[in-house]
């Protein structure tokens, strides 16, 4: 869209001043809980002014959110979102439902939107142990057969979107929380070589895409992060292409790790870039004023940690409104994890993000 491109250019030239544009979210508070007071033009505009590539969001065209005009009217605002990750559309069960038969319909819809809106596209994902089609989970694989299937899958999807994707989560969640390799069907047939096969296929299919491994509980100093760094070193020693690590960052209010920056610097020291790829900060319901204020502080802490390490490319939230968050259905009793509430009102968490990108202290 022309407006998105114009804003893109503006953001690249000079920081948008907080007073230059009117607040866009002035919806009246719909509950007693506090709402954002920030009058900044948008989180992506602030992220870009701060030297990051984007502030972005996951979005899911396999769910009703894509038929919700209010949702879409905010999603398309480049000032707020400069990057999209398809939450489901590019996962194996959707994109290669039959062996060697690709269906790019849903993936193309998100890829086309990023271009229409002038946004960056993150490919998600290549190889993961969940959301697999039946033909993958029900086959009694030998190593040769599965190596071929992984190579064909990654070549097929990365090749289809070649030139349109900033970064791919080529391998998703390969580690257990105790730092051992997850013993999924890929590991059981191929040991860690499935990771090599996937990364090499991705590089060959799109030499310009940044190739990432994405995981959770690697955002802070600990066993799992050390294991991820060891895996990266092993890949590097074998000459396998690897450019970055995705820090998922599904956190809990009041429990955001204190070693984010130190941990991020360890990845930087390996010559990698990284991104915050799936940020949300959930609270035990019911929400209170105090939890909302702590959540504001917590969002600030995460975004500020990204700003402190130059190779942090951007921050992606795992959808931006509580209306469509995956949290309540996954973590019983928890919710309200996003920067916008279920009525599309900006929460104090929004201010926490904005204040961090502005380089202010909270
Ligand atoms: C959304 O609005 C409805 C009615 O307008 C209200 O009952 C509800 O509490 C609001 N939800 C939130 C999260 O503010
Ligand atoms: C491809 O996926 C779309 C979206 O889910 C679906 O409507 C369509 O029927 C699929 N095409 C084929 C050939 O299965
Ligand atoms: C391995 O599996 C493939 C099919 O996935 C099959 O064609 C091939 O014969 C198998 N090889 C061995 C050695 O069992
Ligand atoms: C690590 O975690 C996995 C998955 O929970 C478990 O199967 C395995 O036994 C654990 N290994 C060790 C050494 O604790
Ligand atoms: C995977 O390879 C490593 C290193 O060669 C080896 O120690 C481990 O036992 C292998 N795992 C399996 C399940 O074969």
UniProtKB/TrEMBL annotation:
Keywords, ordered alphabetically: Carbohydrate metabolism, Glycosidase, Hydrolase, Polysaccharide degradation, Secreted, Signal, Xylan degradation
Major localization listed first in the record, in broad terms: secreted
Domain GH10: 40-356
SUPFAM superfamilies cross-referenced by the UniProt entry: (Trans)glycosidases
Catalytic activity: Endohydrolysis of (1->4)-beta-D-xylosidic linkages in xylans
Domain of life where this protein originates: Eukaryota
Associated pathway: Glycan degradation; xylan degradation
A Pfam family per the record: Glyco_hydro_10
Transmembrane segments: none
Enzyme kind, highest EC tier: hydrolase
Cellular location(s): Secreted
Signal peptide: 1-20
Keyword Secreted applies: yes
Enzyme Commission code(s) on record: 3.2.1.8
Hydrolase is among the record's keywords: yes
Family membership: Belongs to the glycosyl hydrolase 10 (cellulase F) family.
Protein name (record): Beta-xylanase
Species, as recorded: Rhodofomes roseus
């Amino acid at each position: 869209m022309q407006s998105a491109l114009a804003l893109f250019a503006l953001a690249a030239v000079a920081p948008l001043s907080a007073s230059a544009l009117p607040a866009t979210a002035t919806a009246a508070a719909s509950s007693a809980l506090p709402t954002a007071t920030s009058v900044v033009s948008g989180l992506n505009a602030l992220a870009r002014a701060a030297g990051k590539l984007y502030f972005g969001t996951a979005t899911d065209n396999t769910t009703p959110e894509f038929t919700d005009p209010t949702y879409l009217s905010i999603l398309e605002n480049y000032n707020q979102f400069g990057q999209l990750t398809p939450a489901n559309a590019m996962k194996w069960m959707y994109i290669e439902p039959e062996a060697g038969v690709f269906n790019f319909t849903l993936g193309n819809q998100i890829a086309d939107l990023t271009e229409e809106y002038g946004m960056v596209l993150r490919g998600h994902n290549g190889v993961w142990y969940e959301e697999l089609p039946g033909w993958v989970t029900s086959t009694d694989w030998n190593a040769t057969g599965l190596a071929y299937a992984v190579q064909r899958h990654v070549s097929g999807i990365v090749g289809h979107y070649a030139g349109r994707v900033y970064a791919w989560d080529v391998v998703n969640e390969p580690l257990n929380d105790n730092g051992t390799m997850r013993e999924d069907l890929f590991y059981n047939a191929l040991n860690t070589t499935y990771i090599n096969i996937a990364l090499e296929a991705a590089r060959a299919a799109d030499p310009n895409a940044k190739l990432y491994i994405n995981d959770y509980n690697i955002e802070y100093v600990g066993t799992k992060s050390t294991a991820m760094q060891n895996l990266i070193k092993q890949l590097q020693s074998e000459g396998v292409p690897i450019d970055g690590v995705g820090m998922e960052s599904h956190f809990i209010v009041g429990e955001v790790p204190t070693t984010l920056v130190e941990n991020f610097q360890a990845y930087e020291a390996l010559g990698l870039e990284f991104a915050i790829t799936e940020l949300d900060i959930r609270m035990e319901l019911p929400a209170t004023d105090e939890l909302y204020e702590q959540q504001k502080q917590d969002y600030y802490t995460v975004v500020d940690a990204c700003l402190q390490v130059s190779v942090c490319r951007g921050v992606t939230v795992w959808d931006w409104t509580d209306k469509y968050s995956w949290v309540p259905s996954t973590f019983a009793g928890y919710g309200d994890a996003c920067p916008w509430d279920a009525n599309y009102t900006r929460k104090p968490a929004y201010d926490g993000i904005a204040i961090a990108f502005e380089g202010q202290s909270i």
